[in-house]
Automatic annotation (TrEMBL):
It comes from the Bacteria. It holds the Pfam family DUF3147. This is DUF3147 family protein. It comes from Nonomuraea purpurea. The chain crosses the membrane at residues 21-43, 49-67, 79-99, 105-124. InterPro entries: DUF3147 (IPR021493).
Length: 128
């Protein structure tokens, strides 16, 4: 993002990223994708699909945390918040999975969002 809050594409930043960091992200993403495929084979495509979002979300989160760490020091709070938020997202996914076939879509999304907010908020306040 630039100073005005606009998102910009800067390919030159790739040169500043160590090759080791890129390889680690690639290998981790490939590993989680394989796990998602195995989960999909065993428990079905819905369960596998939930795992497919994980590499993209985690890689983006870790990149943002790394940038913040360079600006203001250790990012322990950011990592904790990401873990608690991810736990809330798992609760959201389980709610959608359990209720989607039984209730109207808007109600399911509302209930799942409420469950996510309650779980993530409770975990956040419990870990402070």
């Amino acid at each position: 993002m630039n100073a005005r809050g606009r998102i910009r594409l800067r390919p030159s930043k790739l040169r500043d990223t160590p090759v080791r960091g890129l390889v680690v992200r690639f290998v981790f993403g490939a590993f989680v994708s394989v796990v998602a495929g195995l989960v999909g084979l065993y428990w079905g495509p819905v369960a596998g699909g939930v795992f497919l979002a994980f590499p993209a979300i985690l890689a983006a989160t870790l990149t943002l945390i790394e940038e913040e760490e360079h600006r203001r020091g250790p990012a322990v709070q950011d990592v904790r918040g990401a873990a608690l938020g991810a736990t809330g997202l798992i609760v959201f996914a389980v709610c959608v999975w359990a209720l989607a076939a039984r209730l109207p879509a808007l109600l399911v999304l509302g209930l799942a969002t409420a469950a996510w907010a309650v779980v993530a908020g409770a975990l956040y306040h419990g870990c402070r």
